[in-house]
Design goal:
The complex is a heterodimer of chains A (406) and B (520). Chain A has 16 helices and no strands. With 406 residues, chain A is mainly alpha-helical. Chain B is globular, with a radius of gyration of 25 Å. Classes of the chains: A mainly alpha (406), B alpha/beta (520).
Chain lengths: 406, 520
């Protein structure tokens, strides 16, 4: 009998009156705030250690370019993990699609937009095939995607005949290495980037204010005005700093816009869309979700289809960045993406995690990589440190869960 | 019988937000069988978890004396070393290991880490003989019945040189024959000097096996009675457990037979379901029943009668393999091949096992409530979070869900409040027919009354309600009509005016239904 806590007594309300809703929110999102703070600490640490090199405009720009494909994978991986599954095949699919893209564009001279669409479709089909076996045939995702990992790695070798293939058309390279075009009068900054940054600040403030007003309309608790202002100021400042850094170099990378679109799109999908809710429901308690009328098989299928498509996108970005497709591309990418998701707050048993968390987790890894390279730590110790960070993040999780007695 | 072997003094235990035990005292004399009684949520299991070290020392107040020595158990191993062994309701056996392996699990017959199989089998055979288990020790536990598994647990306890055996509702899942055998075994062990504490709801059983009975209510000790004392009647124990008169356990209800001449809201005809694994076995065999709008209909039956299986099968074929039958809604045949189809036809099934089948414990109250009808708070596939929150707040108030906000994870609520969340979820889905499976299992009296009121209100609003329950008083107190099932068959239909516990029990144990079961 596990229902031993059944005495009906109201749970104590968090103390502190008006601050309570905010504290409540902090407590609920402890994991994400914790990771955000950890990211800040890591950035500050390496900024000092590298004598400021980490935050040089050129390096910040590089950071985005270097980590873009892992971040793309991490978004998809987070959704897979929230659904209670795992996908080990994404590194191989990344390589496979890179190879297919090279064959299309280098050997057959297909126009790049056509090739890109074809590649995304191929990724989606690869993901869907695995998703079908997992969702409808009921095979464990670990096994199916382990097989996928071998199959697609092998197929990549076959396609590329063991060779490295390149170069890609100029336009496609822009996708991974390019920056937004410069417009308007000559300033010391990249105009379009500044404009986008200011626009973003405007949108964020408008959203926050609207949200707050709607909460008041529904007679719900809102944080006091002072704290709200502090929150807005902090948001504005961080966007502004990031914008200025990028704008004082070559401007915003194209791939950053792609990432931002994915973050906003998938974040919205997971938080606000019905299908996103269903993903959390099947990961959190599959039998309960089934009995609630959630079409669990369809949702699982779509989650893997989406992962395949994102892996294809990562493959295109990766190939374009190095201007070549190689059979060895994307090695261990699946593990990096999985690590990012878990550092960002996913739970092994499913049902927990956010897209933003995956991005934060990916950035923690990215900044660690970049910072350790700058200060000259060898790749051997880099792996040790990344492993320990993963342990620490998940250890914090476990400790935090036990502390609140959940 | 000499002095006390166990004294638990002023035990208190608090969980986040809930006081589970307060000043509980339990004294068990050496060599007796001591029964622990109380309603669900009274704190019996919690008390036993304190005793066995599941809730370690430091996490509770008060002190424990075993054989005169103060005990501070850090974990189960510590209490087992002293000879206190607890057998939980959910058996702690590994299904794919043999009986012998299970008996010595964690306590292997081994020298320097190498298991001696001869010793293991020899000892296992000896212990199995002692508990009257007639099986080969190398049989897999998965291949024997629940009654025999219970015996394996006891053999396991004996292997640890048990002095005090704690049994948490040992006969809840057993049939009468196995129960009787188990009771005999407990009495036999008593002869051999083993003291037992038995948690049970079955008063007849307590009278047969126990020397003393301690009653808990709302986390407090009410009294300890001597069973041999003629003043200790079943009524006395019940009133101690409930703490008030039996009269007002249910809201007043005027029996309702439905509008004559209209088709029933839901009618099930000749419904048959096969077992999901044992594909020849009929778990539900040609059951027909109906419920009208505004009516509350009960389904009574013992464990294994097929009530839950019937309900889940009708609700989108969620259990077993369909073997025939039709469902009619308002007189017209409908398809309920999947849960979404059943929901679309206005059928809701509220599960008996809310933790595994009803709720996402990780998620918030609000999101659990909206899950089965997200479309109602969403537009073009996008959930309106504000509207969702408003709906959830509405249910929090109307259903009296005790939680600071609707953002509280459901896992932190008490059983009664969790049940209110599950009910809210299905009320929000706006069904015409609600099938409630054990709607008050594991929740305390106060919350039960609230749930009954909600059920009554639903019927008054014109919904058709089917209540499946193992507690006969609950069915008698709530329903307009009661069906009985036994061994997968419908064995009776009793109107409220004729229903008594005796009548229902007779239908529920009809031999003809059982014989049919044995034939296969």
């Amino acid at each position: 009998m596990s229902a031993d806590v059944t005495t009906e007594k109201p749970v104590a309300r968090a103390p502190g009156g008006a601050v309570a809703p905010l504290l409540d929110g902090m407590r609920r999102n402890m994991r994400q705030y914790g990771m955000l703070i950890a990211l800040g600490v890591i950035v500050a640490l390496f900024a000092v250690w590298t004598g400021g090199d980490l935050l040089l405009p050129r390096n910040v720009s590089n950071l985005v370019l270097q980590n873009s494909y892992i971040l793309i994978l991490a978004i998809g991986m987070m959704i897979v993990i929230v659904a209670g599954h795992i996908d080990l095949s994404v590194g191989s699919i990344t390589a496979f699609v890179g190879g297919v893209a090279a064959v299309f564009m280098v050997q057959y001279d297909l126009p790049w937009p056509v090739a890109v669409l074809l590649c995304l479709a191929i990724g989606a089909v690869a993901g869907a095939a695995q998703g079908y076996l997992i969702a409808y045939a009921g095979m464990p995702s670990f096994i199916v995607t382990l097989a996928g990992m071998l199959v697609f790695r092998g197929l990549t070798e076959v396609f590329l005949k063991g060779q490295t293939l390149g170069p890609f058309p100029e336009d496609l390279q822009q996708l991974a290495n390019g920056f937004l075009p410069e417009v308007g009068p000559t300033t010391n900054y990249h105009n379009l980037t500044l404009l986008l940054g200011f626009l973003l600040i405007g949108v964020v403030i408008r959203q926050e204010v609207r949200n707050r007003r709607r909460q008041s309309e529904y007679a719900l608790d809102v944080p006091p005005a002072g704290l709200f202002a502090v929150k807005l100021a902090a948001l504005t400042a961080s966007i502004l700093i990031f914008t200025m850094l990028l704008a004082s170099y070559k401007g915003a990378p194209v791939v950053l816009l792609i990432l931002a679109a994915l973050l906003v799109g998938f974040g919205f999908l997971m938080r606000n869309a019905v299908i996103g809710r269903h993903v959390y429901a099947i990961g959190g308690n599959l039998p309960a979700a089934k009995l609630s009328g959630v079409r669990d098989k369809k949702v699982t299928f779509l989650v893997f289809l989406n992962m395949g498509m994102l892996a294809a996108l990562a493959g295109l970005v990766f190939a374009a960045r190095f201007n070549a497709a190689s059979p060895k591309a994307g090695l261990n990418f699946e593990l990096e993406a999985i690590a990012a998701a878990f550092i960002g707050g996913a739970s092994m048993s499913g049902g927990v995690g956010t897209v933003l968390g995956a991005i934060i987790g990916g950035l923690v890894l990215g900044v660690l990589n970049n910072g350790m390279n700058l200060v000259g730590i060898g790749s051997d110790f880099q792996q040790v440190i990344k492993g320990l960070v993963l342990l620490a993040a998940v250890g914090f999780d476990v400790w935090n869960k036990r502390r609140v007695g959940a | 019988m000499t002095g006390p072997v166990l004294e638990m003094r002023s035990i208190g235990k608090t969980f986040p937000g809930v006081r589970a035990l307060a000043d509980v005292t339990l004294t068990v004399r050496r060599g007796e069988v001591h029964a622990l009684c109380g309603e669900n949520g009274a704190g019996k299991s919690t008390l036993m978890k304190v005793l066995s070290g599941v809730h370690p020392h430091g996490g509770y107040e008060g002190e424990i004396l075993f054989e005169g020595d103060p005990c501070r158990f850090r974990d189960i191993r510590a209490s087992e070393r002293r000879g206190i062994v607890i057998i939980h309701q959910e058996l702690a056996l590994v299904p794919y290991l043999s009986i012998a392996e299970n008996i010595f699990l964690g306590n292997e017959r081994a020298t320097r880490g190498v298991v001696s199989w001869n010793e293991t089998l020899k000892e296992a055979t000896r212990l199995m003989r002692r508990v009257g288990l007639d099986e080969h020790p190398q049989t897999r536990v998965a291949d024997i019945g629940v009654g025999k598994q219970q015996l394996v647990e006891i053999a396991k306890a004996l292997s640890k040189e048990v002095k005090l055996l704690v049994l948490d509702e040992p006969t809840a899942a057993l049939n009468d024959e196995d129960s009787a055998q188990l009771i005999d075994l407990i009495l036999e062990l008593k002869e051999q000097g083993i003291t037992s504490i038995i948690i049970s709801h079955k008063l007849g059983e307590i009278r047969r096996v126990a020397d003393a009975v301690t009653i808990l209510r709302d986390g407090r000790t009410i009294e300890t009675l001597d069973v041999a004392d003629p003043a200790t009647t079943e009524d006395r124990i019940i009133s101690g457990m409930i703490g008030r008169d039996l009269d007002h356990r249910f809201p007043d209800r005027t029996p309702y037979g439905g509008e004559p001449g209209t088709a029933p809201a839901l009618e099930i005809r000749d419904w048959t379901v096969f077992h999901p694994i044992d594909r020849q076995r009929k778990v539900v065999d040609g059951v027909s029943l109906s419920v009208r709008r505004g009516e509350i209909v009960g389904i009574a039956g013992l464990m294994g009668a097929g009530r839950t299986e019937l309900a889940m099968s009708v609700f989108g074929r969620s259990y077993g393999r369909y073997g025939g039958g039709t469902v009619l809604k308002d007189g017209e045949a409908i398809r309920t091949r999947s849960v979404p189809e059943a929901v679309a036809h206005g059928i809701a099934y509220v599960t008996e096992d809310r933790k595994h089948y009803g709720l996402n414990l990780l998620d918030t109250i609000g999101r659990n409530i909206s899950l089965s009808a997200l479309g109602r708070v969403a537009r073009r596939g996008v959930v309106d979070a504000h509207e969702e929150r408003r709906v959830a707040e509405g249910f929090r108030t109307s259903m009296n869900i005790k939680a600071p906000t609707v953002f509280e994870p459901v896992g932190r609520l008490s059983g009664g409040n969790q049940q209110k969340v599950v009910l809210s979820k299905w009320i929000f889905a706006g069904p015409d027919v609600l099938i409630l499976d054990e709607p008050t299992r594991g929740i305390d009296v106060g919350a039960k009354y609230e749930i009954y009121t909600v059920i009554d209100r639903l019927a008054a609003e014109g919904k058709a309600v089917i209540v499946i329950s193992s507690e006969l008083p609950e069915l008698l107190g709530m329903c307009d009509r009661i069906y009985t099932m036994a061994a997968g068959r419908l064995t009776g239909e009793v109107p409220r005016s004729e229903a008594t516990q005796d009548v229902l029990m007779r239908h529920m144990t009809r031999e003809d239904a059982r014989e049919n079961d044995h034939e296969r």
